[in-house]
């Protein structure tokens, strides 16, 4: 029966063609190497090395065995790695809830790309979820983790663990021809008389509350949109302004301006959220990939 150890000894000797050097490389004594090669030859019924000259040479049988032995050893190493990753919890599937801010900012794509390269045995399946729905999806086991704003819906619930990845300032979106659009920054007091575009979904109340908190006053909403994208389209059409997360900067078109709120006191976070009871290595590894992605984004969108 072929043994991986004997095949490793055979491959090393075939590469060195010298018993002494091969034994040193294998960190064994030369007689032990000779004994193992002899046992392998007896098992196969053919001599693998011609020992009549110096250096020794592979026989025809040895030449035929060499690529097969290398392939077997490679497969053994692959099997060890598969077992190691499985034992460490680094194979399987992660169902990942993702918010619009995680998608638009590029955080989701960067995190998954990095994780696929680091852990090809793990499949990440993103599911777009409104922040208000992420907590429910986690609690009901529909997803294993989420990328989204823990500040909208998670609160102080100890059933969940959230790790801050990146924090985006709230900013004001205006049409490019708005009278305030040329300013480097805008104070919230300058916006009291403006008409705002809000979001219409029942689950968007958390976001509306965050807008009020950022402004420190109750804004007048002339219209409401069904999504951040349609909200920005209404702003670009000159129908109002909107308070948005800086995470939306990548989709700000030429007809819009996104300006800092100079005195805003709140920010929109994107965090890695999971049930506090889930401490498996699969999620820990993805958390590291998400942090890596957040580091790449750095200050580019802030």
Automatic annotation (TrEMBL):
<dbReference type="InterPro" id="IPR000847">
    <property type="entry name" value="LysR_HTH_N"/>
</dbReference>
<dbReference type="Pfam" id="PF00126">
    <property type="entry name" value="HTH_1"/>
</dbReference>
<feature type="domain" description="HTH lysR-type">
    <location>
        <begin position="2"/>
        <end position="59"/>
    </location>
</feature>
<dbReference type="InterPro" id="IPR036388">
    <property type="entry name" value="WH-like_DNA-bd_sf"/>
</dbReference>
<dbReference type="Pfam" id="PF03466">
    <property type="entry name" value="LysR_substrate"/>
</dbReference>
<keyword id="KW-0804">Transcription</keyword>
<dbReference type="InterPro" id="IPR036390">
    <property type="entry name" value="WH_DNA-bd_sf"/>
</dbReference>
<keyword id="KW-0238">DNA-binding</keyword>
<keyword id="KW-0805">Transcription regulation</keyword>
<comment type="similarity">
    <text>Belongs to the LysR transcriptional regulatory family.</text>
</comment>
<protein>
    <submittedName>
        <fullName>LysR substrate-binding domain-containing protein</fullName>
    </submittedName>
</protein>
<dbReference type="InterPro" id="IPR005119">
    <property type="entry name" value="LysR_subst-bd"/>
</dbReference>
């Amino acid at each position: 029966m072929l043994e991986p150890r004997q095949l490793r000894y055979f491959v090393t000797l075939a590469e060195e063609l010298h018993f002494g050097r091969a034994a040193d490389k294998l960190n064994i004594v030369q007689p032990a190497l000779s004994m193992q090669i002899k046992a392998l030859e007896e098992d196969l019924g053919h001599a693998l090395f011609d020992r009549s000259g110096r250096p020794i040479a592979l026989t025809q049988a040895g030449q035929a065995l060499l690529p097969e032995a290398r392939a077997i050893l490679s497969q053994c190493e692959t099997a060890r790695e598969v077992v190691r990753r499985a034992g460490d919890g680094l194979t399987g599937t992660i169902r990942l809830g993702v918010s619009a801010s995680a998608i638009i900012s590029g955080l989701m794509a960067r995190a998954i790309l990095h994780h696929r390269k680091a852990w090809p045995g793990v499949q990440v399946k993103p599911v777009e979820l409104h922040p208000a729905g992420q907590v429910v999806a986690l609690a009901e086991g529909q997803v294993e983790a989420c990328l989204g704003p823990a500040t909208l819906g998670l609160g102080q619930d100890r059933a969940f663990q959230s790790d801050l990845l990146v924090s985006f300032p709230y900013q004001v979106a205006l049409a490019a021809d708005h009278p305030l659009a040329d300013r480097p920054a805008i104070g919230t007091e300058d916006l009291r008389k403006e008409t705002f575009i809000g979001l219409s979904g029942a689950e968007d109340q958390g976001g509306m509350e965050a807008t009020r908190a950022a402004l420190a006053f109750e804004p007048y909403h002339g219209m409401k949109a069904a999504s951040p994208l349609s909200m920005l389209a209404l702003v670009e059409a000159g129908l109002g302004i909107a308070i948005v997360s800086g995470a939306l900067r990548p989709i700000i078109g030429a007809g819009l301006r996104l300006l800092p709120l100079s005195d805003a006191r709140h920010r929109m976070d994107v965090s890695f959220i999971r049930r506090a009871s889930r401490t498996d290595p699969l999620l820990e590894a993805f958390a590291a990939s998400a942090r890596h992605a957040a580091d790449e984004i750095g200050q580019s969108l802030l």
